[in-house]
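A further point concerns the way the authors explain their paired sequence and structure data. The central task, working out the C-alpha cells from the amino acid sequence alone, is never made concrete. I therefore recommend that a typical entry be quoted early in the introduction. An entry of this sort, consisting of the sequence and the corresponding C-alpha cells, reads as follows:
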Amino acid sequence: MQLVSNGKHTETIPGKRYFTIGEVSNLCDVKAHVLRYWEQEFPMLSPVKRRGNRRYYQRHDVLLIRQIRSLLYEKGYTIEGARKKLSSKEASEDSNLSSQLVHQLVSELEDVLTVLKKD
C-alpha cells in the first residue's frame, strides 16, 4: 500500500497494478466524467483501454491525476496552464510530486519491513 497526499489528508493507494475509473475517482476525489475529460486535455494521461473500451489506470496515472487536481483545484491553474506546467521540465521537480514519491517509498519500505519482521 502507498500513502499519497491529497490536500489536507493522506489517502492509501492499494498495492495493485491496475485501477478502474471508479477506483481512481474515489482515490483522487474526482468524478469519472472529469477524468474522461482530462484524458482529452492532458495527452500524458492515457490509461490502458481493454475490452469494451474500459479504462485501467496504473499507479503513475493516479499520481498524475493527483498532480493535475492539485494544479487546477488548489493552485488555481487553468487547464492550459496546468498542461504547460506538466509538459515542462519543472513538472518533474515539482515539490508536490517529490513529496508524493517520498511518501510512496516510505510506505513501501514500511511494508517490506513488516513482512520481514513476521519471519
Q: What stands out?
A: Residues 95-118 form the longest helix (24 residues). The helical segments are 21-28, 32-41, 59-74, 79-87, 90-93, 95-118. Confidence is low (pLDDT under 50) at residues 1-10. Strands lie at 2-6, 9-13, 19-20, 48-50, 54-57.
